[in-house]
Amino acid sequence: MDITDKRCNHPRDVSTDRCVSERKNRGVLVNPSMLWHRGIKALTRELGPVGMAYFLRQFAPGYGDYTAERDELLADVTNEELKKELGL
């Protein structure tokens, strides 16, 4: 039994709760919004809501310039001092 999906105006298969077009074109992503929705849905299904949130937090953009900061912090450190500190 099909009904019209209000989100995309395609027929919706109520037995699978999927858009008929989506079922036929499962590998085709229509737009970034659909990709985001499918991704969140899959992550939540597999990891649960908390796991999904933790996973997404790993990819939050950072700030600053790590390389410049590292070079500034380690400017006066020699290889010998580093080896000594590491116990090598």
Per-chain topology:
Layout: E1 2-4, E2 11-13, E3 18-19, H1 20-24, H2 32-57, H3 66-73, H4 79-86
Antiparallel strand pairs: 1-2, 2-3
Task: For this entry, give a set of tags.
single chain; 88 residues; mainly alpha; 3 strands; 9% strand
In short:
By secondary structure, the protein is mainly alpha-helical. It is built from 4 helices and 3 strands. It has a 3-stranded antiparallel β-sheet.
| Low confidence ranges | none
Instruction: Tally the beta strands.
Output: 3
The count of helical stretches stands at: 4
Decide which structural class fits the backbone: mainly alpha
Order of helices and strands: EEEHHHH
Task: Characterise the protein shown here.
The chain is mostly helical and about 90 residues long. The chain has one domain. The protein is built from four helices and three strands, in the order E-E-E-H-H-H-H. The chain has helices at about 20-25, 30-55, 65-75, 80-85, and strands spanning about 1-5, 10-15, 20. The chain has a three-stranded antiparallel sheet with strand order 1-2-3. The radius of gyration is 24 Å and the shape is elongated. The mean pLDDT is about 80.
